Amino acid sequence: MNDRWKDDLKQCTLCPRDCRVDRTKGERGFCRETDQVMAARAALHMWEEPCISGTQGSGTVFFSGCSLRCVFCQNASIASGTIGKPVSIERLSEIFLELQEQNAANINLVTPGHFALQIIEALSRAKDNGLVIPVVYNSSGYEHVKTLRLLEGLVDIYLPDFKYMSPILSAKYSHAPDYSEMAKKALAEMVRQTGECRFDESGMLKKGTVVRHLVMPGYIKDSMNVVEYLYSTYKDQIYISLMNQYTPLPRAADYPEINRRLTTYEYDKVVFYALSLGVTNGYIQKGKTAKESFIPAFDYQGIERQEGRT
To answer: Which residue ranges in the chain fall short of pLDDT 70?
Structure first.
């Protein structure tokens, strides 16, 4: 990593937590990560939106650590920083190229913000060595605009969450009372960079922003507020993905009001509300998707260089 980026990590302010820890000396802030990139899986992933995964799969890299503490997180084992292997910038650039060789539809960076500087260098190297497929920035939505601006020209598709409108809910369930404030600013920057969604002849997204919202049990009013904000602000510039896959994992037992699955009635209310507003650019989920089987195995697949590769 070049010296300027190392300096930026000596008082890290990459995410809205503004921890200002010296990650180059092994100090850990809210994300629990030092300047060493850590990742848990790099493989084709079939469970994204159809325009992201398609039939060939999205080349997904799951990074360790996170700037949120969502009590319902399906990827808690890696978000907590307890799972992950070190990945050099050189190796990360190789991983991107290997996923392209596997016919991945794109490179999908999952929870990448706290490693943004290292990823920028790895992407630049990979592009110099033949990486041509789109790059997806798959994020919680809790981002600093200044960090996103560093990615301009390297990221083709933004795939952020917009989890809450209510600061009460975001404080309680993600320990981030400023979530909606920061997510609004981040999303505006993402849309500025990508413009309207553009697809190829097969329906695969090549450039644009798709915003995900997970409907939570008991809070459909907040979901409606999120959808209303997204549509009134961006209309058809973005796609809205409404998800029904909320799964009550063990940590949710401490929060009895969300320690259950979403009902079909609750989800349909949000979908019908979106349709009543005029939303047509979007995705919905059908059937029972609230399954732990949708959580990938964080088994380090694709992380280490295989024997025989040069």
So the answer is: 1-5, 288-294, 307-310
CB contact at 8 A, 161 and 141: yes
> How big is the chain by its Cα radius of gyration, in Å?
19
Q: At what angle do helices 220-234 and 264-277 cross, to 10 degrees?
A: 20
The span from the CA of 235 to the CA of 58, in Å, is: 27
The type of residue at 305 is R
Distance, in Å, from the CA atom of 194 to the CA atom of 158, rounded to the nearest integer, reads 8
Length of the chain (residues): 310
User: Distance (Å, rounded) from C-alpha 241 to C-alpha 271?
Assistant: 10
Which residues neighbour 197 within 8 Å (Cβ) at sequence distance 6 or greater?
205, 207, 208, 209, 210, 237, 238, 239, 281
Closest CA to 107 of 140, 79, 135, 138: 135
Q: Write out the two tokens for 152.
A: 């301009």
pTM (global) more than 0.85 = yes
Q: What is the pLDDT of residues 161-178, one digit of tens each?
A: 999 999 999 999 999 999
